[in-house]
Recover the amino acids of this structure.
C-alpha cells in the first residue's frame, strides 16, 4: 500500500472535522508506512466541471477515450487507477452526497471505461482497492438516537461497487451540529470506527506514541 488518494468535499476545507480526522489517521499511516505517497483532490477548491452536452454526447455515442470531451473524466479516472487505497471525506448535504462529489462520480463512473453493462447488470472494470469514506453530518442517522434518514451510504456503496470498488468502509461522524459535548464524543467514536478498519487498525497506539 504505497499510494493513497484523499478526496475531500467539504466547503470548510482543512477546517472540516472529517478532514482533520482523516489527516490524523493518515499521519499514523505515514509513520507505519514511511514510503507512503499521499495525493489530494479537493473537490470544492478544484471543482469538477458540470456535465456538458459534449460529455453527455461522448458517453451516449461511445466516443473513444481520447475524445477531448472525455479529457477531464480520463484525468480523474487515471488518478483513481493509480491509487492503492482511497479516502473520501464528505459532509451530508440534504440527506445525501454534496454536488461536488456527485460531479466526480459522474466523471469516473463511465460506460465502457470503468464499467460494462451486460445482460445481468453493470460490471466494474477497476481493480478493487480499499475505500474509506468519512461521512460528516449535523444530525444523527444511525444508532438509537437516529432522527433522520440518509441516502449517501447506500448510494456510495452501490455506485463505487458498480466500477469494481467493493472493499468500502464507512466512518460516520455524526451530530456535528449538536453542541461541543456531542462533537467530541462523535470524533472519539469516529476514531474508533477508523481503527476497526483493516488499514487503520492499531493506529491509535501509534498516534499516542
Ligand atoms: C447545504 C447543507 C445541507 C445539509 N444537510 C444536512 C442533512 O441533510 N443532514 C445532516 O445531518 N446534516 C446536514 N448538514 C450539516 C452538515 O452535514 C454538517 O455540518 C457536517 O458536519 C458538515 O461537514 P464538514 O464540516 O466536513 O463540511 C447540511 C449542511 C449544509 C451546508
Amino acid at each position: 500500500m504505497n499510494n493513497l488518494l484523499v478526496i475531500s468535499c467539504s466547503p470548510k476545507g482543512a477546517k472540516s472535522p472529517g478532514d482533520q480526522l482523516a489527516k490524523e489517521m493518515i499521519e499514523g499511516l505515514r509513520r507505519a508506512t514511511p514510503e507512503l505517497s499521499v495525493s489530494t483532490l479537493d473537490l470544492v477548491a478544484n471543482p469538477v466541471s458540470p456535465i456538458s452536452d459534449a460529455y453527455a454526447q461522448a458517453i451516449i455515442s461511445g466516443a473513444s477515450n481520447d475524445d477531448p470531451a472525455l479529457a477531464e473524466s480520463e484525468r480523474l479516472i487515471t488518478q483513481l487507477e493509480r491509487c492503492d487505497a482511497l479516502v473520501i471525506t464528505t459532509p451530508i448535504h440534504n440527506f445525501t452526497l454534496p454536488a461536488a462529489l456527485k460531479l466526480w462520480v459522474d466523471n469516473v463512473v463511465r460506460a465502457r471505461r470503468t464499467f460494462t453493462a451486460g445482460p445481468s447488470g453493470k460490471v466494474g472494470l477497476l481493480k478493487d482497492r480499499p475505500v474509506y469514506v468519512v461521512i460528516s453530518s449535523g444530525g444523527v442517522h444511525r444508532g438509537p438516537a437516529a432522527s433522520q434518514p440518509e441516502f449517501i451510504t447506500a448510494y456510495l456503496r452501490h455506485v463505487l461497487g458498480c466500477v469494481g470498488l467493493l472493499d468500502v468502509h464507512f466512518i460516520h461522524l455524526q451530530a456535528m451540529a449538536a453542541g461541543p459535548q456531542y462533537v467530541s464524543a462523535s470524533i472519539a467514536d469516529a476514531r474508533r470506527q477508523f481503527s476497526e478498519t483493516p488499514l487503520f487498525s492499531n493506529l491509535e497506539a501509534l498516534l499516542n506514541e
